Predict the structure.
Amino acid sequence: QLQVVESGGGLVQPGGSLRLSCAASGFTLDFYVMAWFRQAPGKEREGVATMSSSGDSTNYADSVKGRFTISRDMAKNTLYLQMNSLRPEDTAIYYCAASPWSGAITTMTTEHFGFWGQGTQVTVSS
């Protein structure tokens, strides 16, 4: 079955870095738009970054531009999110998701994505 499993979260101090991983099974990343979302306590789930099925295009939320980088390793069929210069407001559960619709790279909204993982907790605190 189609599945994604996130890992790599943890506790980090402000200004620190983390790399999240999303291992996909049952499908290959180059057939879907892939995305990272996050959800902080009491807030709606929001899109963080997306990557086209070809891997040539990416899109970022304004709040993470210049700090986060989405990438993938096709040999491992794994999506990554490199997070640098982390801030307390980045604290959230981070989710990986896939969409068969090419327009989802721009919309970055939850209703256009499926195959959600269980998420991985990222806490930024001193």
In short: The first helix runs from residue 104 to 107. The chain is about 5% helix and 45% strand. The helical segments are 104-107. The CA atoms of residues 7 and 38 lie 13 Å apart.
